[in-house]
Each structure stands twice: as structure tokens, then as C-alpha cells.
Amino acid sequence: MRRTSALGQYGEEVATRYIEGIGMAVVERNWRCSEGEIDIVAREGATLVLVEVKTRSSLAFGHPTESITPRKLRRMRHLAFRWLTEHEVHAPSVRLDVIAVVQGVSGAPSVEHLRGVE
């Protein structure tokens, strides 16, 4: 397995544990379609939350959230629409979140949760 793939999987595991730890319910992980992937689909009460996980091994090349560009946000919105359509879900509210994970060098990873990115 490539190092970046392993790091990405690590970040998604950390993000999943974090989400469950704050009381959100994970509905699906790594949903894919021809246009991309949603890392985590979760519920927080009546809100459906689609989560993009960004992971770095250090801050040497910037914070993980710096990779969330306007183009990436448009893609996230489109993938959210595709997921809702394909699963025939009519949620009262839908939110896009980003979870940034920085791998801990000698300890616990750092986790930052951005709610409702636009």
C-alpha cells in the first residue's frame, strides 16, 4: 500500500472515531461514484452530514484545510447531491463538514472539525 493511501486510511479511521465520539452516527464510509468519493456520510440528529477528511503527516506542506478550494467545495456539493439522489434520501438538512487530521509524531493526532463549510 502506498504511503499516501495508508495515511489517508489512518486519517479516516481517526475521523470516524472522532465523529462517533461526539455522538454522530456514521451511515457510510468511502462511497464512490464515477465522479469521486465521499469519505464519510453521517447523521447528527436530523441533519445528514457529508464529511471530507484531509490528513497530513506534518504541517511542513501546510495545514490540511488549505487543500479545500472553491473547486473542491463545488465537487463536494455535487457528490452530496449524487449521494442523496442515489440513496433516495430526503433529509431535512444537509451539511458539508471537513475534518483535518495531523498525524501525531509521538502522540495522539490533532483533529480539527470544520462544520458547515461553504
Automatic annotation (TrEMBL):
CDD domains in the cross-refs: PoNe_Nuclease
Classification via InterPro entries: Restrct_endonuc-II-like (IPR011335), tRNA_endonuc-like_dom_sf (IPR011856), UPF0102_YraN-like (IPR003509)
GO molecular function: nucleic acid binding
One Pfam family of this chain: UPF0102
Family annotation (Gene3D superfamilies): 3.40.1350.10
PANTHER family recorded: UPF0102 PROTEIN YRAN (PTHR34039)
Protein name: Unannotated protein
